[in-house]
Amino acid sequence: xxxxxxxxxxxSSVSKRFGGLLALDTVSFEVQPKEIFSVIGPNxxxxxxxxxxxxxxxxxxxxxxxxxxEELSGLRNDQIVTRGLVRTHQIxxxxxxxxxxxxxxxxxxxxxxxxRGSKARERVDEVxxxxxxxxxxxxxxxxxxxxxxxxxEIARALATGPEVLCLDEVMGGLNPAEIQQAMVLVxxxxxxxxxxxxxxHHVHAVAGLSDRLVVLNFxxxxxxGRPGEVLRDPAVVAAYLGDETKEEAxx
Length: 251
Fold this sequence. Notes:
Blueprint: E1 9-18, E2 21-31, E3 36-40, H1 47-55, E4 62-67, E5 70-71, H2 77-81, E6 85-87, H3 100-110, H4 117-130, H5 146-159, E7 164-168, H6 176-191, E8 195-199, H7 203-209, E9 212-217, E10 220-225, H8 227-230, H9 234-250
Parallel strand pairs: 3-8, 3-9, 6-7, 7-8
Antiparallel strand pairs: 1-2, 1-4, 4-5, 9-10
Helix pairs in contact: 3-4, 3-5, 4-5
């Protein structure tokens, strides 16, 4: 795990209520620079709501989200993107009638970097190469396979120039070979200097990639720490891993 330093992201007592539903209940954790930090838990645990609170898609009901010491709660999503915190979506959302290259170009032009001209073209080419989409650059996004769409979702986020990249189930729906390729990509992104937050249901990917992780259940944090410790926690096994390992055994 990266050496301890000031956290790049600090989440403090974040709660989110939708009417009578408490989706997040006083969740706290810190993420260190250049760390791969995973958020796991059963369906409905509040993982995607948490990501939405981090990037300003929804605002916490109570609590604090600080990025490099700056309070983000109350800022719009586009304001948070320009500060260097960006997410992907579990359900991919490309511009389907635009080419892969043009999808990436949107992030280059309107994200944190706001590049133009030759610098924009260089950035698009760089992102295409990092996500292994060069051969699909001129294909319409609507014709891509699920594996290619997941890489494009990462590429569109990368194009904005993030410091922290939040990946929401980028391995969902992939076959085993594609999952291995995705794991290689995530490691390479971290090694390039990015901090990675990751929601993921594939337990072996979580265990193989994460420096640390947090487990949510019914909106509340039930465990946090290194994968080897957390994944053996009886509360985590009871709430999540028992069913998850059965599903993977059937797959």
